Amino acid sequence: MMGQIWQQIRPIAERVGQHPTLRAWRGVLFIAPSVTLVTVACSFTGVFHLLEWASLDRFFHLRPPETSDSRIVIVTIDEADINHIGQWPMSDRAMAQVLQHIKAQEPAAIGLDIYRDLPVEPGHAQLVQVFESTPNLIGIQKVGGNGVAPPPILNDLGQVAAADLILDADGKVRRALILIGTGNGEFREGLGAKLALMYLADRGIELESVDEENNSYRLGDAVFVPLTGNEGNYLGADTGGYQILLNFRGGIDKFATISLTDVLENRIPPDLMRDRIVFVGTIAPSLKDSFQTPYDSVVFATPTLTPGVAIHANLTSQILSGALQGRGMLQAANRWVMWGWIALWSAIGAIATKLLLQNYPLQKQECLSSAIAVVAIASFLLVVCGYVSFLGGWLIPVFSPFFALTASAILTANSHNQWQLKRANQQLEMVNEKLEEYSLTLESQVRDRTRELTETLHHLQTTQSQLIQTEKMAALGQLVAGIAHEINNPTSFIYGNVAYAEEYATDLLEILELYQEYYPTPEPEIQDRLEEVEIDYLKEDFPKLLTSMKDGASRIREIVKALRIFSRLDESDLKEVNLHEGLDSTLIIVQNRCQKGDGDAGIQLIKDYGDLPQVCCYARELNQVFMNIVTNAIDAIEQRQKELTAEELQRCPSFIKITTSVIENARVVIAISDNGLGIPPSIKHQLFDPFFTTKPVGKGTGLGLSVARAIVVEKHGGDLRVSSHPGEGTEVRIEIPIQFSASTHQK
């Protein structure tokens, strides 16, 4: 029967196992659970306990400092106090005096953290009397190990607590005893717990059972849950009695202290101990009553031990703060939570590494780096989670999940690398099988490749021709500038002699009129010639001809002068110039585009020149800036004229206005404005980008404003700004310094 079932299931299982996704993730599905099991086993045997405790100690250091507890006062006994009383143990008389002086302050409770199982004469009778008359005095006994009996009188009065402290495997105190059983079947409360219960009982706060099965109790706002040995860091530990985790407030500096000498000599500040819990204990190193706590964890120095009396005071403070103020009680996660937590981070390490390597294919060496990156990021999150949980009163393991995370990430990276290698081998085999197929089509591919290369060569030749044409156009510009320069001399000759020709022609015509006046009847041959040349028309038209020649020569001179001023080929680059000359030369060059023609409304050129000084600048480059900006303005106005009717253009004529001024006696301003269509806001941020243009192909290169900005801002240390409102026009504002700064140019 089972065989038949297996025969039916086997094909399905094989198909599922061959699924590409499951094959790719097979390593993760194996690695994460395996690493979890190994980590849990190590945690169960205590391998990670020391490291987990070290993490807990670090959290105590990172936690914000706690405030001092004003409800507790510690009477300290150091080496100086021992020298003062002259003996140790101190005599019963000295102890009685200390207790009497403390009792006079009316404290809420007194904890005598000094063993006194035997009399120390002199003064034993006096001490017994003090014991019997102080109902809020608690003595101590040592229950575990080499026990120490309590003071007999206090034991008979039921005023005894246990002074035992619990050390973890690394010798530090992290747990506290609330209750411990003695050998004779009795139970003793811990010193810190008993004093706290006395203090709270006076305020009407008593223990209430919450869960008898789990020994959980409520005390005011605090809930006590004992350690059971099933918690993460204390698996299998001795948790006899009623133990809780200590939520330390700090060292002895978190409590008010006064020396034994001051108490003996009754130098106690008024009300220092009134309604407070008073501990009396030793802090002298020679008495060896100091222990390591989480606050004593240092790496490169000798740790400073915490006195036992301060540890008891921390427990009292923890209970009081929890019951009265709701301060959190530390609780450790049980083993099931811990194991689930380890499994979670093991899965995170494996899955995150797999996703990273799967989405970003890497080389073998990079796989390990990726795993390390995953571990680093996830470890940070793990530590943050552990620290936040600690602040919330829960202890969750940190190092064992880190171990699981790291191991899973590294093993997954290695597994992925092996999987990639196997897949590469399979692909290589497939490539070898297809090589024969590719060889059959090689000739066709060669022909296609040859055709592509031919097309590429043709494209390169076309590009080369375009570059050559561009160079030709640049050379042509130089040639035109040279021709304009050479035209200047014959034009000057013509212009200079037209006046003389006009004078001579006038004289000749006057002489001819005199001949006609005194010889009205010339010879027939002369009369025929006069009629042939139309002497009357000639006398009328010849002065007009000379005037036209003079105007034309004058116009040629102005154009040549404008070209020379514009190009400044015969001048040095940097010199003091009159910017108005450059502006005028620019307007003369573009005047033909501004004049009114057939069906054209024309463009008014408005010059509002201020009184500008000579400006030290690169005049040729600035003329290029003026030309680029004015040309752009003309293009914008021509587009406007195409969109408006003749009546609209008559009401609002097109114009270009150039305004110059001086600001702050240091900079000149040239503002070129027009009433064209304006610039759309969507493209304002692209105006100075090279090759950006809104003009049709062949109309512009998109370099005008980019070059202008470079000349004004970078070469002259000036400023170039454009302001425009669609439908209203555009203004380009140029500012340059009057005095050129070489440092600005270098910058």
Give the key terms:
747 residues; alpha/beta; 4 domains; 6-stranded parallel sheet; 5-stranded mixed sheet; 23 helices; elongated
Describe what this molecule looks like in 3D:
- With 747 residues, the protein is α/β, with parallel strands linked by helices.
- Helix content is 54%, strand content 15%.
- It folds into 4 domains: 2-45 and 340-422; 50-332, no CATH class; 451-570, no CATH class; 572-746, 2-Layer Sandwich (Heat Shock Protein 90).
- Strand 20 and strand 21 (667-674) form a beta hairpin.
- It is elongated and about 180 Å long.
Q: C-alpha Rg, in Å? A: 53 Å
How far from one another are the termini? Answer: 92 Å
Task: Please identify the structural class as seen in this structure.
Answer: alpha/beta
Q: How many domains make up the coordinates?
A: 4
Number of strands: 23
- The helix content is 40-55%
What is the mean predicted local confidence, pLDDT? Answer: 80
Low-confidence stretches: 12-18, 465-477
Largest sheet: 6 strands, parallel
Provide a count of the helices: 23
Question: In order across it, which strands form the biggest sheet?
Answer: 4-3-2-12-1-11
Query: What share of residues are in beta strands?
Result: 5-15%
Q: How would you describe the shape?
A: elongated
